[in-house]
Amino acid sequence: MDPNILYIIIGAVALIAGIIAGKIIFAKNTKKQVADAELQSQSLLKEAELRAETIKKEKELEAKEKFVQLKSAHDKEVNDRNRKIAESENRIRQKEQSINQKEANLDKQIKENEAIKDNLNRQIDVVNIKRNELEKHQEEHIRRLEKIAGLTAEEAKSQLVESLRQEAQTQAIGIQQEIIDDAKQKANKEARKIIIQTIQRTAAEQAIENSITVFNLESDEIKGQIIGREGRNIRAIEAATGVDLIVDDTPEAIILSSFDPLRREIARLSLQRLVADGRIHPARIEEVVEKTRKQIEEQVMEIGERTVIEMGIHGLHKELVRMVGRMRFRSSYGQNLLMHSRETANLCGIMAAELGLNAKLAKRAGLLHDIGKVPDEETELSHALLGAKLAEKYGENPAVVNAIGAHHDEMEMQYVISPIIQACDAISGARPGARREIMQQYLQRIKDLENLAMAYNGVEKAYAIQAGRELRVIVEADKVTDGDSEKLSFEIAQKIQTEMTFPGQIKVTVIREKRSVNVAR
């Protein structure tokens, strides 16, 4: 046999023997480990049983404690419920006793009421019997009175009612007058105080302007230059300025006549420049007048800006500022329009402040209330409505627009400041010295006042005194009684108030005098 094969067989047998020997050794070790594991498991099992017993005893103790606590809480809750039930039973028992007592009292009261009712029925029967007897006596008495007076009951009643009606009417007029006087005194007390304080805190100029301006000359020779050849210069001046030039025998003076103060001012300044320059002819006149007009426009804008700054009014549109400046050259009844508007604005600011209103807004409306008198173009609208339209056009506050349009009652007043503007405008225009009233209008108003009083029956004479602020009416004593005098005074005052237009107020005084005259001979 080949030695190599032998070696291989021997190696394989040795390997197999080694493997078998290893398995035998491993088996022995495994048995030992199994025995050790069984001993260890038995030990663990005993420990687990001991721990389980301990936990069981602990849980039993906890359960007993929990049961004791729950039982205590349950007993307490049961005791509380029993106590509440006992209290409820006591209250119910008390209520039952109270109800029983009330029922007893009610039964007693019902019995007493029945006794009272029976007594009242007996008294009513007695009263009915006496009333019937009284009616019979009254009828008998009325028949006797009718027989004595010769009048039936209805006729006497009618006469009595008529007499009482007349007496009540007379007394009602007197009471009405007293109520009106008392109401005016109380209602106008604060208003008079505010108005008086407002007027006292302002000072304004007197009316002095008129419709002519006197242009003084150094010599009468200049008159000829102003007139020009065949009057061409004076015609050119009148055409360019719209002002009438009156050249008469007045020494060293020419009269400029126009109702528009702005035109008169342009004419005066133009003449002053022409005379100083010495060159007076139609072309030069037109040139100078145009330059003067531009200068006046700049001056107007400057006056407007200065006015709004002095008045503390901001954010005014430049066109409105220009209109404010134009007011300087306008007048109404001799009262300068700008001075009137400034005075009205100051009055409005003071009055609004006294009343706790917006003084700045009231002052703004007061300054702009007459801008409709200085429009660039003439329209058919009244100055109040035109002013409101212009103010609205240039973005003024709706309250200002309404105050401008309503200050002559041509629009409905929708804001609180509107009546303030109206009142302050009247104060500024009606104060003494503010305006010049035409004599014919003044005399006509006085005459109408006296004729209104003379139209009443029993009026003997009527005199308007104190520049029309008081009307004294003298009545015939035989035709007008004292009660009729009060009624007449009230009626005349009401008629004046509704039919006439006048500044301020008019006091009506009715005088009744009874004279008895005898002559001793």
Number of helices, counting only DSSP H or I runs of 4 residues or more: 15
Helical amount: 55-70%
Q: How many distinct beta strands?
A: 8
**First CA to last CA: what distance?**
218 Å
Shape: flat
Structural class: mainly alpha
| Approximate strand percentage | 5-15%
Global mean pLDDT: 81
Query: Rounded to an integer, what's the Rg over CA atoms?
Result: 59 Å
The helix/strand series, from N terminus to C terminus, equals HHHEHHEEHHHEEHHHHHHEEHE
Q: Low-confidence parts, pLDDT < 50 over ≥5 residues?
A: 205-209
What is the subunit organization of this protein? single chain
Strand order, largest beta sheet: 1-3-2
The major sheet is characterized as:
3 strands, antiparallel
Description:
The chain is mainly α and 521 residues long. Helices cover 70% and strands 7% of the residues. It has 15 helices and eight strands. It has helices at 3-149, 153-187, 189-200, 221-227, 232-241, 261-277, 282-311, 318-326, 337-354, 359-368, 383-393, 398-406, 417-430, 439-454, 482-499, and strands at 212-216, 244-246, 253-257, 331-332, 335-336, 459-465, 470-475, 507-512. The strands form three sheets. A three-stranded antiparallel β-sheet has the order 1-3-2, with helices on one face. Strands 6-7-8 form a three-stranded mixed β-sheet, with helices on one face. A hairpin with a 6-residue loop joins strand 2 and strand 3. Helix 7 crosses helix 8 (318-326), helix 10 (359-368) packs across helix 13 (417-430) and helix 12 (398-406) packs across helix 13 (417-430). It starts with a helix and ends in a 9-residue tail after the last strand. The model is unreliable at 205-209 (pLDDT under 50).
